[in-house]
Design a protein that fits this description.
This protein is of the alpha+beta class. The protein is built from one helix and two strands. The protein has one domain. It is about 50% helix and about 15% strand. The mean pLDDT is about 80.
Length: about 70
């Protein structure tokens, strides 16, 4: 009976060790694959605002560049 318990315990311990090794190897591989994939989000174009400097001067304008975050 004692011999069966020891062999069963070793079998379970070796199984846990194999699972831990597989997880330790797979996590960096999966992270690398996920990081290597392209981000499919569309780029949002920036907006250019042109405003007159003064209400009396329409020929002179300042350009404000705004990029979305």
């Amino acid at each position: 009976m004692k011999k069966d318990a020891i062999s069963t315990g070793l079998f379970i311990a070796i199984g846990f060790l194999c699972v831990a090794i597989v997880i330790a190897v797979l996590i960096p591989v999966v992270r690398e694959v996920i990081d290597a994939t392209d981000d499919n989000k569309p780029t949002i174009p920036g907006v250019t605002l042109v405003q007159p400097l003064d209400s009396t001067q329409t020929a002179v304008a300042r350009v404000l560049n705004h990029t979305s975050v």
